[in-house]
Amino acid sequence: MWHYASFRTAIRIVALANARRESAPPLNQMMFDLMAEGYWSSLFFGIRRLLDGSSAIKGDRGVYSLRSVLKDIEECRNKITRRVYVEWVCEAQYDVEDLRARHWEKLRVAARDRKAVWGDRRIALSEYAHRYFDLLSGVPQSKRSADDVIDAAFFSNVERRLAALSSIADYVGSHIAHAGNRESRRGKTLDYFDIRQARIAVRKVKRVADFIGLVFANAGGAGLATFIGDQFEGLDKPLVTEEDMSDLEDQWRMMNRDIESWSIPIERLLRKFER
User: From residue 13, how far is each of 19, 29, 32, 161, 230 by CA, in Å?
Assistant: First the structure.
């Protein structure tokens, strides 16, 4: 999400610069192309990692991904009863009515003695845990049972949301992660994928991640990171001065000569094979 916000800022910088464009482009295309290439690669790789479902969480080939977490929960589905979920996953008390009765007695005594009493936050924790499991199990409050389990439809519903991003994972596998040929890349393109589609993709991943974190890890969803400092510091200054241009040209010529020296004459290459 931070990279998404950063790249949106870069796009806005280009738009503002183009609005003031005169005879020459105010921004260096080489630097922006490098930035864009890095952003799209990191976005596609990041989404592919989160969608990875090729392995479980544990083991030599274990991975941490949204699909691996869901797969782990699904395999333990029959063990995660309502009681187990409330008491072990959410660390709450199962019998919320007992909590309410004891708290009501505290309130009654406090009212009689004219004293203040704190509310019992364990009641809310227990209520939320049961409500979450109502949604997971598809069992209404009036029919709750300690042996309720997560409805199998829950996993297929989440998978449908993740499957909507499968085209990105297929694209990464054939175009970026591996040197795919024309046949292996057929039907695995991302036509017209721009920053608008990036927003939709990141939003879909975040929503699933937030849901899994809230329901299974007692953690709420996170927003954009808070940067310690000024994320726009230095943007109002030029990257280089006119005096620096000759130095950059020297550096470029030096790199060019170095790269040209990397070639190996065919005679030397054959002699190495002979040895």
Answer: 10, 13, 11, 33, 16
